[in-house]
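User: Some background: our group keeps a shared notebook of sequences we're curious about, and every so often someone picks one and asks for a predicted structure to add to the entry. Today it's my turn. The entry only has the sequence so far, pasted here. Could you supply the structure so I can complete it?
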Amino acid sequence: MNPFDRQLPFIQEQAHRLRTNRLLQTLLALWLLFSLAVYLFVVPLNKITVPVLNMPLGFFIAAQGALIVFTIILFSFAKKQDDADREAGEDD
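Assistant: Of course. Here's the predicted structure to add to the notebook entry:
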């Protein structure tokens, strides 16, 4: 038996963990970027009014847009993680 055959699962597990950490860090960076960008531009955006709701756009994006974006990020992470788990051969 080749000694490298025993190390192959360990190497695959490390590669999977590295991809997962990279995905997590990327999505957390997007989350941080969006959450900071909304609050940096809330004052200029408040000068625009949403016609149907008659409320400032900055307030609307901070209240509703942030929740929508965070939910999209959460579901995209779950989908990509599931794809990575299947690629690595891990079953639930």
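Suggested note for the entry: The CA atoms of residues 57 and 63 lie 10 Å apart. The chain has a mean pLDDT of 82.
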